[in-house]
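Changelog-linked ticket: NDP example.
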Amino acid sequence: MSKVLIIGAGGVGNVVARKCASVPEVFSDIMLASRTLSKCEQIARAIGGDRVKTAKVDADNVNELVELINRFKPEIVINVALPYQDLTIMEACLQTKTHYLDTANYEPRDVAKFEYSWQWAYHDRFKEAGLLAILGCGFDPGVTGIFTAYAAKHYFDEIHYLDIVDCNAGDHGKAFATNFNPEINIREITQNGRYWENGKWIETKPLEIHKPIKYPEIGERESYLLYHEELESLVKNFPSLKRARFWMTFGSQYINFLNVLQEVGMTSIKPVNFKGVDIVPLEFLKAVLPEPSSLGEEYKGQTSIGCQIKGIKDGKERTYYVWNNCDHAKSYKEVKAQAISYTTGVPAMIGAMLALTGKWSGKGVFNVEEFNPDPFMEKLPEYGLPWNEEIDKPLPVEK
Ligand code: NDP
């Protein structure tokens, strides 16, 4: 029986709150806090039964966070606000002796760059305080790290090649929208690509490398090589990897819109002065695009995210593919959210549950693949994310 504080009441926050509320034997008391109180209240009302308390908090402000945490006294904070708030929330957790979990690594607002160094630097302070911080516990990062750890534990002596493949074959009926926070999403996609090969990072131009990859129950989709944050921790935690890449699908219409927005300067994070006010074009663009949490109702189709791995077992080459397919309409029916929010929120709830029940423990800052993957893999289907595996079959990414 534990108290949990969820910070961020967007698409993902809604799913985390609903899923935690459905497990009262672990999450006895829940508070949902965010910048806009009305969004928390709306979610709490929809859940009903006075299960979820609400509060307004500016998560950029450590003192406000400390005050809120001291008032509510949660055992763990689930951070599903934006990556900009990771460090302030970690700082507040340290000051109040509270465990921490998030789903995306820290990014400074003024540089489109994400890496774990800022959060890994907190390891000793969390360790000395006897606290646990779990980084990147959504789907990717999150389940993709757990899939990799599970493969390494049960199927391989050494893993050599890892391809994380992320397909959204859904259609939300809008001309252009992003599936999670538009600002964070567009920053991620418009950066240079990067992958790991033979001990070093190889950089590519944004979306330069692409090819069709076949996804289960979906078929072939054009997939683009991106840099994604879990690659950084996975190559560190699995040093036998000779190559690690991340692929994501985009439709041609999405790419066309993105190119135009980029060409006209709307994806820039450099402020421009407009009628005496400094505005960041990308922040303005976010304000006019649909909110990810509003995309659910008309969304049809599935996501398919998995890991395709090649390595060695008992001296022989082995291949392994593990994946989850998630249906947008089914997610919406269950929690009023599309599959991207669903596949992020469910793992965040499971990670918090494993920490609170002692199945995942440790002192310091850890990425998910450093824990025992088995209890997590067991809980995934129980809470709505069934997974499938194929052993020693040709890998679709290699075609
Ligand atoms: P949304 O934009 O829908 O929600 C973000 C929420 O955070 C909003 O409620 C927002 O408040 C709140 N927020 C922003 N700034 C502050 C602040 N300073 N203080 C308090 N609250 C704040 O995003 P999503 O729900 O789609 O994504 C949430 C997180 O999940 C992001 O970090 C994203 O990167 C991550 N993510 C991870 C994935 C994974 O697989 N690992 C996949 C998808 C998302 P307001 O409503 O006022 O704007």
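Closing comment: Example verified and attached. Residues 143-335+385-398 form a domain with the Dihydrodipicolinate Reductase; domain 2 fold (CATH 3.30.360.10). Residues 8 and 56 are 10 Å apart (CA to CA).
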